[in-house]
Please model this.
Amino acid sequence: MASGLVAAGAIAAAGPAAAEEAPQHQGGAAATLDGLTTYDKAVIHADGGDQQISAGLFEMTVDGGGTLKTYCIDIHRPTQGQAKYLETSWDQTSLGGNRDAGKIRWILEHSYPQVDDLSALAARAGVDSLTEQTAAAGTQVAIWRYSDHVKVDAVDPKAEKLADFLEKNARGAAEPAASLTLEPNAVSGKAGKKLGPVTVRTNADRVTVAPPAITSGSADGVKIVGKDGEPVTTAVNGSELYFDVPADAADGSSSLTVQATTSVPVGRAFSGVTQSQTQILAGSSESTVSAGATATWAKKGAVPALSARKNCAEGGVDITASNKGDEPFSFELMSFKHTIGAGQSRTVTIPVQEDQAYDFTIKGPGGFSKNFKGVLDCKTSVAATTGTMGQPQNRPSPATAGDIPVDEGLDLAETGSSDATPMIAGVAIAFVVAGGAAVFLLRKKKAPSDDE
Model:
């Protein structure tokens, strides 16, 4: 407990010192919430009484161009005004543990706006007519019954009949694939070799491949090439990309970005960068999507590749560190030291409380530095925090962590507190650190092949 309090104090003092980088994103669309645009009324029935709320479609503006239409899948959490959202896999949201997630996708595929013939939709629901507003409200109500498992009804009788029809007929459907992602999104190796492969996964016909960008050291002469070693500027689904690093390149790191224009698949989840109700996609215009990957290289010594992913099943954030160098490297995390041997890979799960914002930086040799931030939002909110849909709240401040130097190449700073509430968060982190050994998950992964 004493050591936990010392660590928490150091984290609380760090405050805004954390690197200012974007939240980790596996790829796809990034968008800004414009608000609730097509809606009617619904009523939540709870032990504390009934509450009337708005129910319907939101719109988002995609970074780089495009528009998304979404429904809410977290009824009790208000939205944040102009909140930023990222396309996200189901397992990194409340859908991952929801046995009815597939039924929600079925509803989306069989109702408004995917079915824009309102006369035909009304006939299936057994009503004489539907407006865009009542169709959106009825669809949202049906979704809530499966996303939040709440007692909720549409106020309009026709919208309510649509909700009942959709709920009764919903069947399981598979999660849609991402619009664009790169697998893996971090590679490493010796200078003088092709580092990769990084495989393109997309529903777009073609993606553009931007020239590599320097992130540390010097990337002079570094090229993005295909499997045949030839430079590439475009790629398709399944293409394998490599960082071609000259033998005389100074130790450093680089990044690549791929981008496309496509319709994001219906049913993709969108999670807020800050605490804002999770959304699920109901429709997409042609929109800009992107994904990125990084590469780290050195002539000798430890050469780390680092990536992060929310782990809702374990209640934390997975940090995967691999070492393609010829020497081991060590890092210290929550008072535990871990050593990754040459050619090995390991994943460490950092415990993070539900709804906690996290922000930490990992540093490695040769000026390598990588920042991970976000909010762990794996569960739907409880009824006690019910708010009106579309009602903005103050933007929460993320927890931050400073850089803690560690010998032999790599250090991970611990998750920490909001600079607005250092004492409260410091005590909370103390308990997390004290119990870290009980909840820590370490799992070794099979070492990648030499040309990865």
User: Anything to note?
Assistant: The radius of gyration is 23 Å. Residues 1-21, 385-452 have pLDDT under 50 and may be disordered.
